Automatic annotation (TrEMBL):
Compartments, record wording: Golgi apparatus membrane
Protein's membrane topology: Single-pass type II membrane protein
Known cofactor(s): Mn(2+)
TM region(s), chain numbering: 21-42
Keywords for the protein's UniProt record, in alphabetical order: Disulfide bond, Glycoprotein, Glycosyltransferase, Golgi apparatus, Manganese, Membrane, Metal-binding, Signal-anchor, Transferase, Transmembrane, Transmembrane helix
Recorded GO MF terms: alpha-1,6-mannosylglycoprotein 2-beta-N-acetylglucosaminyltransferase activity; metal ion binding
Pathway where this protein functions: Protein modification; protein glycosylation
Name of the protein in question: Alpha-1,6-mannosyl-glycoprotein 2-beta-N-acetylglucosaminyltransferase
Highest taxon above the source species: Eukaryota
């Protein structure tokens, strides 16, 4: 302390005070340091135990408040088993211990058409670069024949997930059929049955609503629920059980994803196939920007957040098709046209000629002996997109858009609520476990 007071007495007083203050300060500092050290040592010594305990405790609390708050359907033993299975690590990690840094995760969503799945898997096995990434197969329902095919995959890391709230998993209660459900055009008041009809007066059909439920559950789960992907920063590619994938699909997609910010800043996604699924591409020396397609589409987390914000629009639109719902409500609500970028030659083909949920257990199978006649030319075996190409933009393409009323099939309040619950299940509580194993 600088003592410039003229009187010596005053100065000494100050010096004394100063000394006392210093002592006090050193006591405080030493005490603080001690406490700090104690905290640090406690943390380093017991962190795992403490946080595990925390998790256990909060998990129980979560499960209770979670079910009450979200009102998810009561799970049965089987659906709990499926939810637990969803936490199994990917297979083939011994064969492919590391994913490439810039990998594009592939999600294949399937129901129950083993003959189709076989074709898809065989086509995937020939995709150049597939071993660099993780393949997630999302199942609507549990079917041994489907599992067998997935278990046979050896060409990359594979993770199987099963929609635990699939109507196919609930034989006698919602989301499946329950005995007092209204059927077809029943009058709920007169028949004392449960259900609210769609805009055309029809009651829900669990087999039909399962499609949209599965898609929405799968989207929420891969982006926000799975520990393997919820930190993934790149794109995720989505394909279906009746999409044939060309050998150049992955390398082309990588090019499209890297060109997208430069060539088409307005593009939300990249697509492997034209929006019109009957087309195979123009064959021009040009990239194409057009409306979002539903075959082989890939986008990133920024776009997912935008979609997720429109959960209400998605869940309340009276159409059982996820893609028509997106075209008619979600994309238009973004405020500007939703373009996607693709190459001039297709890298994926929708080969299923039968509608969904048909074509199995029928005499007129849509595909013969698990193979389909798809022509793959040499040009489809290597990346065939050029970074120097310009972009041709298709404006005002025909198709479902804002104003379309929907085909119905999605009028039941219970379905709409379940759908909303899927959008919330990884957000109101941040423990993944509670969301997937809760009963
Ligand atoms: C994700 O894609 C959108 C649309 O292409 C783009 O605007 C955004 O910058 C991308 N986000 C990241 C983190 O790359
Ligand atoms: C499918 O396989 C069966 C038995 O291998 C054979 O008899 C039949 O001709 C095949 N069908 C077609 C269309 O190839």
């Amino acid at each position: 302390m600088l003592c410039i007071v003229s009187s010596m007495a005053n100065c000494r007083k100050l010096r004394l005070k100063d000394a006392a203050l210093k002592r006090l300060l050193s006591v405080v500092v030493v005490t603080l340091l001690g406490v700090l050290l104690l905290i640090v040592s406690l943390r380093t010594n017991t962190t795992p135990g403490l946080s595990e305990l925390d998790e256990d405790l909060s998990e129980i609390a979560d499960i209770q408040s979670f079910s009450e708050k979200l009102n998810l359907p009561k799970q049965n033993e089987f659906s709990i088993r499926l939810a637990k299975q969803n936490q199994m690590p990917p297979r083939n990690r011994d064969l492919y211990p590391k994913l490439a840094k810039d990998h594009i995760t592939i999600v294949l969503y399937v129901h129950n058409r083993p003959q189709y799945l076989q074709v898809v898997v065989k086509s995937l096995s020939k995709v150049v670069g597939i071993s660099e990434t993780l393949l997630i197969v999302s199942h609507d329902g549990y079917f041994e024949e489907m599992n067998k095919i997935v278990e046979g995959i050896k060409f990359c890391q594979v993770k199987q997930i099963f929609a635990p709230y699939s109507p196919h998993v609930f034989p006698d209660s919602f989301p499946g059929v329950s005995s007092n459900d209204c059927k077809e055009k029943d009058d709920a008041g007169k028949k004392h049955c449960v259900g609210s009809p769609d805009q055309y007066g029809n009651h829900r059909s669990p087999r039909i609503v399962s499609l949209k439920h599965h898609w929405w559950w799968m989207m929420n789960t891969v982006w926000d629920g799975l520990k393997e992907t919820r930190g993934h920063n790149g794109h995720i590619l989505f394909i279906e059980e009746d999409h044939f994938i060309y050998p150049n699909a992955y390398r082309n997609l990588q090019l499209l994803v890297s060109l997208k910010p430069i060539k088409c800043p307005d593009c939300y996604a990249a697509n492997l196939a034209p929006c019109d699924v009957n087309l195979r591409g123009e064959g021009w020396d040009s990239l194409i920007a057009e409306r979002m397609g539903n075959v082989g589409y890939a986008f990133n987390r920024t776009v997912w957040r935008k979609i997720h914000k429109k959960a209400k629009e998605f869940c309340f639109f009276d159409d059982y098709n996820w893609d028509i719902t997106m075209w008619a409500t979600v994309y238009p609500s973004f405020g500007s046209p939703v373009y996607t970028l693709r190459g001039p030659r297709t890298s994926a083909v929708h080969f299923g000629k039968c509608g969904l949920h048909q074509g199995q257990g029928q005499t007129n199978a849509c595909i013969d002996n698990g193979s389909v006649n798809m022509q793959v030319d040499d040009i489809d075996k290597v990346a065939n997109i050029r970074s120097e190409w310009g972009v041709h933009v298709y404006d005002n393409q025909p198709g479902y858009k804002a104003g379309f009323k929907g085909w119905g099939g999605w009028g039941d309040d219970r379905d709409r609520q379940l759908c909303l619950n899927f959008a919330q299940m990884y957000h109101s509580h941040n423990t993944y476990l509670s969301a997937v194993t809760m009963s």
